[in-house]
Amino acid sequence: MLPRLVVGLAALLCALCAPAARAADAAWTVQPGGARPYVYLEGVPGTVLEDTLAVTNPGTKPLTVRLRAADAYNTETGALAVRGARGSHGAGTWITLASKRVTVPPRTRAEIPFSVTVPPGALPGDHPGAVMAAFGGREAGVRIHLRVSGPTLAALTVEQVKVSGGAIHYTLVNRGNTALTPRLTIRADGLFGEVLRRAPRTLPVELLPAQRVTLTETWRDHPSLDSVTVRIEATAPGDAHAKGSASAAFVPWGTVAGSAAGLLAAAGGTVWFLRRRRSADPGPAPEQTGSERHLGRSGA
Known about the structure:
Blueprint: E1 29-32, E2 39-43, E3 48-57, E4 63-74, E5 80-82, E6 95-97, E7 101-104, E8 108-117, E9 125-135, E10 138-148, E11 156-164, E12 167-174, E13 183-190, E14 193-202, E15 212-218, E16 226-236, E17 240-250, H1 253-280, H2 290-299
Parallel strand pairs: 2-10
Antiparallel strand pairs: 1-3, 3-8, 4-5, 4-7, 4-9, 6-8, 9-10, 11-12, 12-15, 13-14, 13-16, 16-17
């Protein structure tokens, strides 16, 4: 089943400091050839696949863009990104561009051919890549979704679940060979029953094969005083299913600290009062010896 894909990678935009005369150049676009929403290619190891991408120049001056192929990956928070010019080791190295530098005349759409050579030993599954176009400090990309024919496996794990204050942190890891769109359910039970239940929802993340993302769920109305167990369940198309859990204790430390300070102050006051009382009490008169009693009677 063809996965749901975003049209192109999120463009890597930089602040444009060009003068107003070049404002029209900033409107250039790059997209798959043939007015498609994305590029999808599939083949067995050893085959060569061909396709095109299009660069449109709506401006009044010629536009020269630089093109490069790259691997696609997930950032730590789940966003899609591409490797740098020398950081690709997967699908980005399988892509060959007809030209790495293309000049597009004004008000023209130019289509640039490219090919993908699937290595003989390529593993089955999804191999995400992209073709990036750059001009004037701006870089935009077209997603190349490449699938190598063969058995596919949808699998993921939920790891490193942690409850910290008003947040639940967890990590999702794609253990299979297909891109996944996870669906998440969260619940928590305390000493006296359920304290949190969130309906299943699809996460705004496309988790690529062999990638991991660390996400956070806010929990503003957590208990003030309780011991809870948080359970996370993740699913994805293809019968992927995983669970993770963590325990946490919620204690109102501000109240506890205030009560402890009050008890310490009371105890300190009691000790001070007892010591002061002892120092003011002269105690019993000393007992007289026999000679002292005799002298007392003689003087009488």
